[in-house]
Batch of 4 targets.
Target 1
Amino acid sequence: PATNATGAGGDQAGLAGDYADPDHGSLKIRRQASGLFSFSLEAVSPNGNTGSAEGELTAASGAYTWRNSEFDCLLTFHPSDNSISVAQKGNCGFGMGVSAEGSYRKQAGS
């Protein structure tokens, strides 16, 4: 799939880590040697369908974005203290009823 990250400048201290949402979804963010952040997201619907996305993020005015043009998908990541809120535009190629939207809480020890 055609993907790219958008944004410019800045750094988010403590952004890297493992996050989870109440519906058993997970979000992993890692800082790469290049200084960019990579992410891997697994979303789960209430009926058990799943969807996933991964790619690179860069800072954009306190938020991070990732776009998948194949599915007309835009994910926006808004970090705060020990959580990240994710907003989704488009279906992102996820399973039926699956959305990445929600609040992902940072897990202890990550």
Target 2
Amino acid sequence: PAKTVLQIAECSERVFEKIAKIVKPRLPMMFSEPFRTISFLLIVINGVLMALPLSVPMSNSLPAWMIMINVLANLEEDGALVIVSYVQSAVSFAFFIALYFGAETGLEFL
């Protein structure tokens, strides 16, 4: 077990070193008040989408990626990453909208 923990720690260290090269403090305006509220609301909405009892592939991972990216952006104060999380949220919303209309069309077909 100790060897396994050491391997996990070494692998994690390599991953975090790669992340540290990408993530850095920039675009401080993304942490002013209107954007903080938008980020909070998007995290809540994506959390609600994750809580939906759907057995559809990607229905939890898309909102989870948005939340993870946004949290990382807030930890490192990276405004560019906040923008990436907003884009990921749009992708997540588009997925759920397509899922809704696809289910509606499927039910009409029956």
Target 3
Amino acid sequence: AYEMATWLEFRRVLSDLGTVIVELILNSYEHAYAIREQPWIGFSASYEGQQLSIIISDKGRGTTEDSLMNSSSYGIKLLHTMLERWRGRWEFNSAEIEHVSGTAIKMIFSL
């Protein structure tokens, strides 16, 4: 029974994570592609020392951390819910990415 519960929990984490990634990429697409002639969206994932890190970034117009914390966006609300449920955290950076403004969100989970 324990193995089944663990497998079901793992599937739920992956489902939540997949939904959040899609929402963040769609948000990047909406903002990065709306203002750039040559838009760029990045995705990276790494697993190191029992820690999973996922970064979604773009070369859009950038935003502020306060704006994201108070956003009514479905993707951002889902991000907060998922991080709370799975005891994750996030880091935010709205700075220059290769000399172009943009936004990067890093999700971090201890496994």
Target 4
Amino acid sequence: AVLLGYCVKVEIDHRLRTRGLAGTAVITAMNGRRVIRDSPDMRVDVTLRVTSPEGEEFETWTTATLPIVGMPQVGWEVPVRYSPRDRYRIVLVGDAAPPDLGPPSHPMER
């Protein structure tokens, strides 16, 4: 039963990555769940404030596998994809990054 549930989740995540609506999210909270044995990653519950392509904002959460080294922080932005029918079905689809601090006065100052 656990394996079947895992396979269903993998399929749903694949569909979201290929057919989901693109959005940008800000990480508003993180709660580490467990370190994955023999892996540099950790399972983390991530609370997100998502902005849709139309500019609408909503809050949701998901469980993601993230690297322990370079772990994203609260306030960082991350690209997401979510279901057009159920926007609370969501996956992270790229690397998280600190929020833009505005353009530097000189391109080499970043």
